[in-house]
Amino acid sequence: MTSRGPIAVLGLGLIGGSLARDLAARGDTVWGFDADRAAVRSARRSGVIARAIDHDLTALRDAQVVVLAVPVDVAPALLQRASTHVRDAALITDVGSTKRRIVQCAADLTLGASFVGSHPLAGDHRAGWRASRTGLFTGARVDLCRSPQTSDTAWRRARALWRAVGARPVEHDAARHDAELAFASHLPQLLSLGLAGVLAHRGIARKRLGTGGRDMTRLAASSEKMWGAIFDENAEPVLDALDACLAALGALRGAVQHHDRETLRTAFTTAHAWTDDETRNPDAHQTRGGRAP
Amino acid sequence: MTSRGPIAVLGLGLIGGSLARDLAARGDTVWGFDADRAAVRSARRSGVIARAIDHDLTALRDAQVVVLAVPVDVAPALLQRASTHVRDAALITDVGSTKRRIVQCAADLTLGASFVGSHPLAGDHRAGWRASRTGLFTGARVDLCRSPQTSDTAWRRARALWRAVGARPVEHDAARHDAELAFASHLPQLLSLGLAGVLAHRGIARKRLGTGGRDMTRLAASSEKMWGAIFDENAEPVLDALDACLAALGALRGAVQHHDRETLRTAFTTAHAWTDDETRNPDAHQTRGGRAP
Do B184 and B251 fall within a single domain? Predict the structure, then answer.
């Protein structure tokens, strides 16, 4: 941000903590809140946050920007608790993997003008302040979802916030975002979790796997607190995505069973065209998923 | 290897090419064969192979060690073609992801004494000579499968071959190997392929994915020629593994549909214990999957 008043980061986990680190490193004044007092102390000691925000959240009155960086099932209640104190903020945003509910929630609290939903695609399987690090957002896409009430000021501020930490903001519709992320992120998470469960049950240690199997089970180490909330909130799109995948796996099952190399070849050809596509046209996603704001 | 006669590598793809590079780098005399003449020329020009083996394979008469590094559906026929020329070899081995058929095939050709089945867990989604590189096997587990006929000399040579390139040979029963790899490797490959197909069909570009989604779709770029042959040959164990996974995904589907956080929590707890296990006991797989030879 072109620096002005303090930026309050509520939740100092992987995403919130990393954002706080990057903002502090470029000279912004960052205030922090986390239910985990040890995380707050650590963030204070390392000089990342200049002030610990008390549980009553009254300090938010003096924040110019407020970022909710908590699981998606905690964010609405936290926004409600904060709502009386954030009327003067130029921007209120979040970082959750689902966007419909929080955008609607901000509107219901009459905070729509200053609210922009954000989703940085920068997470990994680690969680908590200890996993946070500088540079996490470098080059990462951030989906920005506005509501009809969102002011130009808030919108500009949201873009500036993410650009300040090296990310690439892309405007996206909240409902479309949630439907797309069910396929692009929530489905891969479920597959990894299912695979890890099968391997655990079968007594095959993770070290037994090659690099491919390792890649496929990394997400299984992710936080249940975060993911359970996402599956809960985005259940319908997630079920759509999972059903599509179960159908695809059923077709592959048939091909293996019947030694049908032609069907396998078609599946690989489709997959190769899709992976090659990225190489040929690295910015294809910008025009498919949304437009640059 | 403590160097003696020439080592013939049949197939100069990712695995064969990388093995040839490492052996040549440590001073072994490596001869090479590949159906792709350009790969052979390139391997010659780069000084990795000292001699190109002709299609008639008669040169194998003078090889001390013969390594089959071709897809698993090509290896048996190649071994048969080579069989009259390799009677004096101290070791004949392969690198395939399935072991029952090739070990049996060597016995049928009365090559059992000098044959040891090898499976280095070092592949990735790339293929061909151009993907080959030095150091690919450093620290990688290599499953070694002997037959009742395998001589002590061949066994010692097989261990020495893989140790020479930095790998970690572990004895394994061929049938158990194939059943285990169906879960540890062939199943992850099918899941990645199925996921890529769904995302392609849905029009979601790979660049749209976060790091987790990228991890989950990397294997989809693997070679059909290699994988089609593996699924064909190991169909029954692969179907067992896939059915176990479809059941696990069905259970997760029910949990998402019914907002059953308890079932999700249990799934994450199981997955976390399994991934943590690796950290706590990095050598656990050595005692589970097989014993050090």
Answer: yes
Among A196-205, A208-217, A260-269, B179-188, the least confident range: A208-217
Instruction: Give the residue among A288, A91, A291 at the shortest CA–CA distance from A171.
Output: A291
Angstroms from B133 CA to nearest CA on chain A: 16
Q: Are residues B129 and B245 in the same domain?
A: no
Which chain B residues are closer than 8 Å to A208 by Cβ? 141, 180, 184, 285, 288-289
Residue B120 lies in a domain: yes
Say if B219 falls within a structural domain: yes
Alpha helix locations (H) across B59-186? 75-82, 100-108, 152-164, 174-181
Residues B230, B247 share a domain: yes
**Nearest C-alpha in B relative to A287:** B205
Cα-based distances in Å from B287 to B61, B172, B174, B177:
39, 11, 16, 14
Q: How much is the pTM?
A: 0.90
The single-letter code of the amino acid at B115 is F
The whole-number average pLDDT for the span A162-169 is: 98
Cα distance between residue B131 and residue B216, in whole Å: 21
Q: Between chains, do B195 and A195 touch, taking CB under 8 Å as contact?
A: no
**Nearest Cα residue in chain A from B266:** A224
**Domain-ending residue, one of A150, A172, A194:** A172
Kindly determine whether residue B183 and residue A193, on different chains, have CB atoms separated by under 8 Å: no
ipTM reported for the complex, 2 dp: 0.89
Total domains in the fold of chain B: 2
- pLDDT score of A4 more than 80: no
Question: Could you tell me what percent of chain B has a pLDDT over 90?
Answer: 89
Residues B23, B164 within the same domain: yes
Mean pLDDT of A51-77: 97
Put simply, the answer to whether A256 touches B238 (Cβ < 8 Å) is yes
**Chain B residue nearest residue A241, CA to CA:** B198
Q: Which domain holds residue A186?
A: 177-258
User: What gap in Å lies between CA B162 and CA B167, rounded to an integer?
Assistant: 5
Both A91 and A192 in one domain: the answer is no
**Per-chain mean pLDDT for chain A:** 93
Question: Token pair for residue B132?
Answer: 């080959």
Contacts of A257 in chain B (CB under 8 A): 235, 239
B149 close to B187: Cβ distance less than 8 angstroms: no
Closest chain B C-alpha to A169 CA, distance in angstroms: 13
CB contact under 8 A, A190 and B249: yes
Among B172, B190, B221, which residue terminates a domain?
B172
In this predicted structure, what is the pLDDT of residue B278?
63
